[in-house]
Amino acid sequence: MIIDLKYHIASLVAVFLALGIGILVGSTLLGNDALTRQQKQLADKLMLQMEQLREKNEAVEARANALEMDNERQKQFEKQVLPVLVRERLSGYRLAIIETNSYGFPDDLIATLRLAGAEVQSITTVLNGFYIDGNRQALEKKLGWSNLTDEQLTARLAAEIARGLVKGKNKAMDVLVEEDLLKISGNYGVPLDGVIIIGGSQDRKMVRVQALDLPLIDTLLQYKVPVYGVEETSVLYSYMQDYQKKRITTVDNIDTIPGQVALVYALTGKPGHYGVKPTAQKFLPELDEGGQPADGKGTSGIGTDSRL
After folding, report:
1. How far apart are the first and last CA of the chain?
2. How far is it, in rounded angstroms, from Cα 86 to Cα 81?
């Protein structure tokens, strides 16, 4: 049910205006028939306007309800066609997921990747916005590092996380887990066909794209591992523009079925910038007929968790 505050405010204003005019006229010019008729005409006009506003509000409410029904039908349609679009397109793919935003990601993303035939080997979650101020002394002591700025220390730790995905868990990752700055689950050091970095932020203070996400991407690309940068539609601070500077594929609406379809097709060898934001180039990649990928395993470049 839609409540149109403008309608209620306008109605109240009209009523009080009519009453105010009536009191003013009645108290100062009592007995004047001409003014009494004008007062009645004005009151009738205000009542007519109120009725018109009420009718408009009902029309808007009906339209909103119809759009809501259309949206629900659209969601049902997307869920029904999803298996047809993605099934087995990523058969044999080994993927890893890194969350840099600390907000998690849609549960159905894992389900979609599995439906497409991929194996999610690991999920790595950066915790607490990866702020290391309170952990600096412990980190430096345990790792034997010193004389690094906060940004340098963060970038070096990010590189170690990326290295751990490719080469296997390392001391830096263990220390980060001990300091509650990192959560890891799954298999590390296994061959990977792609790494999905989930970024974006709802809090300006937690934006760490320069110090964290980009060093992650740089290190993974050095190891020749394709990287795919994604985020949800509603993030307040988008990382897409920063990710795109690294010439990796991006999807800015990963919380939706179209966004997940775009990611699956991008993984099969259709790089690009997909989604609904100004930084996107297309809504979706070109969709192939049939259930098998046309191009084989692709590149991202342009030119212990219960979900595992």
Report:
1. 40
2. 9
Contact predicate 89/117, CB 8 Å = yes
256-277 pLDDT tens trace: 999 999 999 999 999 999 999 9
pLDDT tens digits, 86-121: 999 999 999 999 999 877 787 899 999 999 999 999
The Cα 285–Cα 274 span in angstroms is: 7
CA dist 173 and 101 (Å) reads 17
Give the Cα separation of 101 and 192 in Å (integer).
22
**Rounded to whole angstroms, how far apart are CA atoms 193 and 90?**
10
Q: What is the sign, positive or negative, of the torsion defined by CA atoms of 249, 252, 254, 258? A: negative
Residue 230 forms beta bridges with which residues? 198, 251
User: pTM of the full predicted structure?
Assistant: 0.78
